Amino acid sequence: MYKLIDGKEVSKSVKDRIKAQTELLAKEGKKITLAVIIVGNDSASRVYVNNKKKACEYVGFISEEYALPDTTTQSELISLINELNDRADVNGILCQLPLPKTIDEKAVIAAISPKKDVDAFSAYNVGKIMIGDYDFLPCTPAGVMEMLKFYNIDVEGKNSVVIGRSNIVGKPMSMLLLHSNATVSIAHSRTKNLAELTKGADILVAAVGKAKFVTADMIKDGAVVIDVGMNRDENGKLCGDVDFDNVCDKCSYITPVPGGVGPMTIAMLMQNTLKAYYLQNNC
Ligand code: GUN
After folding, report:
1. What are the CA-CA distances from residue 169 to residues 143, 207, 228 (Å)?
2. 96 included as an active-site residue
3. Are the C-beta atoms of residues 198 and 161 closer than 8 Å to each other?
4. Most CB contacts within 10 A, which of 104, 190, 192, 273?
5. For 67-109, what is each residue's pLDDT tens digit?
6. In this structure, are strands 238-239 and 231-232 parallel, antiparallel, or unpaired?
C-alpha cells in the first residue's frame, strides 16, 4: 500500500514557520516585501503569480505585483528591475518565466541582484548551489527535499533518477540529492533505455513536462516517486508527468498532482524571501 506525500500539509508547516517569524518581526515594525513581475498574458503564469501573492498574504509578506504588457521591451523590464534592486524596502524580486520571445531571459535573470534573487536563478546563486554553499535554495528542488525530510525518507546511498535537465528543476534537483549523498543519474530526451535506468531507482523524480510519461513498467517495487509535472491530459484534466493511477500501487510513497510538489515550490519561495530579508539586514 502506497503512502501519499501531501504537499499541502508539508507546505502549510513551512509557511506556518515563516508566518511565526514574520509576526515576530512585525512586532518590531519590520516588514518583508516580495516584488513579482509578470509580462504578457500567459494563463498558467497568471495562476502561479496569483498563488504566490496568496502565499505572501498568508505568511504576512507584502507582495507588489508588476503586470506588464507583452509589448514591454527588454530595457524597460531591466529598468524596472534596477529600480527594485535599489529599493531597500524590497527584499525579493521574482520575474515569472516564460517571458515573451522578444526578451532575453538570461539578461533579465542577470539583472536581478543576487541578494534579491529568491528564485535562485542567477549564475552567482546557481554557482553557490553547485558548491553546496547556498543562501537561496532553488524553490522546486528544495520543496522536494523538504517533503522527503517531512516523511523521514532518507536518500543517502539510494539510487536516484531525475528525468529532466532543466535549469529550474532537473539540474538543481540532482545537486540537492547529491548533497544529501544520494547516487544520482540524470535522464533526458536522448537517454537510451530509460525504463532500464528508472527501474533501478529507489527515488524517481519526474520533471519532463509530458503528461503521464512515467508508466508502471518504469518503476521499481517500493520506489519513492516525485512528480514535478503539471500538464493537461487528453480530457483537459490537470495531471503530472507520472501515470499516477497505474504507478501508485508499485510505490512506497508518491506525490499527487495537484497537491504535491506545486504548493512546496511556493512555500520555499516564501522561505527564500525571509532569508533575503535576513541577509539584507545582517540577521
Ligand atoms: N516559471 C515556472 N516556474 C517558475 C519559477 O519557479 N519561477 C519563476 N520565476 N518562473 C517560473
Report:
1. 11, 7, 8
2. yes
3. yes
4. 273
5. 999 999 999 999 999 999 999 999 999 999 999 999 999 999 9
6. antiparallel
Give burial (CB, 10 Å; 0-12/13-18/19+) of 232. Answer: exposed
Checking DSSP bridges between strand 183-187 and strand 203-206, what pairing results, if any? unpaired
Dump pLDDT digits (tens) for 126-152: 999 999 999 999 999 999 999 999 999
Q: Which candidate in 15, 117, 119, 202 is catalytic? A: 119
Residue whose C-alpha is closest to residue 220's, from 203, 249, 200: 200
Supply the DSSP string of 47-61, one letter for each residue. Answer: HHHHHHHHHHHHHT-
52 is catalytic: yes
DSSP bridge pairs for 184: 160
Ligand 1 center from residue 139 Cα (angstroms):
9
Cell of 82: 534596477
% residues pLDDT > 90 (the chain):
99
pLDDT band, residue 283 (cuts 50/70/90): confident
Residue 33: per-residue pLDDT: 98
| Residues near ligand 1 (Cβ within 6 A) | 94-97, 119, 139, 168, 265
Instruction: Give dist(CA 56, CA 54) in Å, integer.
Output: 5
Set out the domains of the chain in order of their start, with CATH numbers.
29-113 (3.40.50.10860), 139-262 (3.40.50.720)
Q: What cell does 191 get?
A: 537517454
Query: How do residues 21-63 score in pLDDT, each as one tens digit?
Result: 999 999 999 999 999 999 999 999 999 999 999 999 999 999 9
The pLDDT value recorded for residue 6 is 98
Q: How far is the CA of 223 from the centre of ligand 1 (A)?
A: 28
